[in-house]
Amino acid sequence: MKKFTNVHDIGSLKQALADAAEIKRDRFAMTDLGKNRTLLMLFFNSSLRTRLSTQKAAMNLGMNVMVLDVNQGAWKLETERGVVMDGDKAEHLLEAIPVMACYADIIGVRSFAGLTDKREDYEERVLEQFIKYSGRPVISMEAATRHPLQSFADIITIEEYKRKERPKVVLTWAPHPKALPQAVANSFAEWAVAAGYDLTITHPHGYELDPAFTQGATIEYDQDKALAGADFVYAKNWSAYADPDYGKVLSTDRSWTIDSRKMALTDDGYFMHCLPVRRNMIVTDDVIESDRSLVIPEAANREISAQTVLMRMLKAL
Ligand code: AN0
Ligand code: CP
C-alpha cells in the first residue's frame, strides 16, 4: 500500500477487518517487520490519540518513530507555490518534503482543513503534495476532508459490538462552540457506507455534507426520528460545507446534544465519538459515562487501525 487517505486505499474492507482482528489477537506477532524502518509523523495540528496510537502501532512492529510538531520548533512552512515568502514562513513544503523523505521510510501527516478556502481544502493540497513529492508511502493522520485511521477504528469497533448483520448507524451533528472540519463526518459516512451499514445522517438545515460522501445514506433532518431504533449513535460536530457558509458555525443549538432522553429512542444503542469531546455540548456526562458509551474502545482500536495500515505499507516497501 503506497498511501492511506480514504476507504478505497485499503482495498477489501472485509480483508482489512480480518487483518485488524488478527493484529488485535496478537499485536506483537511481527516485531521484526519494521526493524530499521522509520516512521516520521508530522503534525500541523494538535493531537492526543493519533500521535500516541500511531507511535504505539509502529513500535509494535519494531519501527523507529520520529515526531515533528511543525508549529512548535520547526520552521513555519509555506504550502502554496508562487508565494513571495516575505512573511513569517521560513521554509517551503517543496524543499521540506524531499528533505524529510531522506530520513523516513513512511510519512504520516496531520493537516486539517483551513475552513476558509473550500477548493483548497477539498483538493487536499497539503496531503497531495506529500504524496507527489515525498516518494514515500503516506498516511493521512486526518487531512482536510477525511480521517481514515479514525473511521477504520470506528468500523472495527462497530464490528466488535454489533448485534445484527446490518446495524442501523446514525451519524448526528451536535453543537460545538468553534468551527470544526467536516473530515471526521465525511470519513465516517464513507466507511459506514462501504461497510454496508444502514446509515442515517441527521443535522440541522445548512449542515449538509458534500454529497460525494453521503451517497447511500438516508438524510433525516428530525434528530428524534433519525435516532429511532438506532444500534449505534455516532455524534460529531462539523461546520457548514455548503456555500456561502463554508467553514461557518451556523448553530450552537443544544437541543441537538445527545442526552439520555435521546439515547432512550434508540434500540439500546451504543454511543460513539472520536474524541476529543466537549461534554454537555456534544454529549451529556451521564451518556458518555454510561455502559453504552464506546468512546474508550474506539480510541483503543486506533492502535489496531494504525498497525494494520503500517503492516501493509511495511510489507510493500
Ligand atoms: C478535530 C476535528 O473535528 O476534526 C479532530 C478530531 C479528531 N477536533 C477538534 O479540533 C476539536
Ligand atoms: N480522534 C483523534 O484523532 O484524536 P486526536 O485529535 O487527539 O489525535
Which small-molecule species are bound to the chains here?
A: N-acetyl-L-norvaline, phosphoric acid mono(formamide)ester
Number of helices: 12
Helix content estimate: 25-40%
**Number of distinct beta strands:** 12
State the shape: globular
Compact overview of the structure:
This protein is of the alpha/beta class and 317 residues long. The protein has twelve helices and twelve strands.
Structural account:
The chain is an alpha/beta fold and 317 residues long. It is 37% helix and 15% strand. It has twelve helices and twelve strands. A five-stranded parallel beta sheet has the order 1-7-6-2-3, with helices on both faces. Helix 7 (183-194) links the parallel strand 8 and strand 9 (198-202). The longest helix is centred in the C-terminal third of the chain and has 21 residues, at 295-315. It is globular. N-acetyl-L-norvaline is lined by residues 142, 147, 180-181, 183-184, 274, 276.
From the structure above, extract its key features.
12 strands; binds phosphoric acid mono(formamide)ester; alpha/beta; 37% helix; 317 residues; five-stranded parallel beta sheet
List strands and helices in order, with pairings.
Layout: E1 3-4, H1 13-25, E2 38-43, H2 49-60, E3 64-69, E4 77-78, E5 91-92, H3 93-103, E6 106-110, H4 118-122, H5 125-134, E7 138-140, H6 148-161, E8 168-173, H7 183-194, E9 198-202, H8 211-214, E10 218-219, H9 223-227, E11 232-236, H10 260-263, E12 270-272, H11 285-289, H12 295-315
Parallel strand pairs: 1-7, 2-3, 2-6, 4-5, 6-7, 8-9, 8-11, 9-10, 11-12
Helix pairs in contact: 1-12, 2-12, 3-5, 6-7, 6-12
Bound molecules: N-acetyl-L-norvaline and phosphoric acid mono(formamide)ester.
